[in-house]
Design a protein that fits this description.
CATH class: Mainly Beta
Largest sheet: 6 strands, antiparallel, barrel
Low-confidence stretches: none
Distance between the termini: 62 Å
Radius of gyration: 19 Å
Number of domains: 1
CATH superfamily: Electron Transport, Fmn-binding Protein, Chain A
Strand order of the largest sheet: 1-2-3-6-5-4
Number of helices: 7
Length: 192
Amino acid sequence: MTEISPQDEKLLKGFRILNKFMLLLWRSGLGNWLNMFPTTLGRYMVITHTGRKTGDRHQTPVNYTVYDGEVYCTAGFGAKADWYQNLKANPQVEIWLPDSWWGGLADEIFEPELRLKIMRQVLIHSGFAGRLAGFTAEMPDEALAEMSKDYRLIHIRRVVARTGPGGPGDWAWIWPLATFILLPLALRKRRK
């Protein structure tokens, strides 16, 4: 695996913290909220993948786009991203999209022209993360190719729709419970 620079290590730490918060939102049934301002904040999905060493299931929020009806995402840290390494070892994944939950297969896109066209769309839909990486929508193809040369473009082929426990919104039950408990407490404090 490629060495991680100290600057990338700091970014990775920041994203790990942000990712935990994003997973909490998805599991609490608020995944759609993350996708309310795609040009500013980005479009997010969650990939559930299997650890290449441990076999444990992991979940990683990533930016994505839908291009010609197909789902694509990018590993901005390139080949050194753990989730990318896991997909290479086991391409069977689940993805949580704002409107659906799918089992699928991941494969990497290498064809240069197609890769560049879709990479641009993914980065546009990455919002602030794309801008943080130095991307602009007006960037010429040559500059985009150079900037994203180490990125990995992943195609997720949706195979089977999923339902049931363990998916997006599996903790959404907390909202009625919190309302049932917290609202009376808040109202009682106001009366006193």
